[in-house]
Amino acid sequence: MDLKYPIGQFQFDGKITNNVTSIWINEIEDLPRLLRDTVRDLDNIKLDTAYRTGGWTVRQVIHHIADSHMNAYVRFKLALTEETPVIKPYDETNWAELSDYKLSIDISLSLLEVLHKRWTYLLRSLSPADMEKTFIHPDSGEVSVGENIGIYAWHGKHHLAHITSLCNRMGW
Question: What is the model's pTM?
Fold first, then answer.
């Protein structure tokens, strides 16, 4: 198993349809519950264990997901309200070293629960024309709203797999 990409990298070569985005939105909606269920019985020693050599700890992964998904939510809103905006990336590695990544994971888990309620409500309201709107990521280029839904459905599953694969390997 590739510990860095346990579910592989995001790939979607098909047509982005209402059915496809509906599945992705459901996956985004389910993530906070799945994360909470997965980490429910992990103590601080386990939370401070890296999922792979050179990787983040479980605690950092949880806080990263919250940061990443807050940024994603803003990017969606920018794409929906501006003409092909250029978004600002952030240095996720440096963010993971900031002091708030030492906080209890309950803070980020709660944030994710509330954020994902707003986010999925917004996503379910989008028209086919909204799905075609885009933003420019300085590293990735032009990204459509529809594609970005898939990217973030994958992102949640990707980091959940980091945690679940660590738990399985460690027998937790």
Answer: 0.96
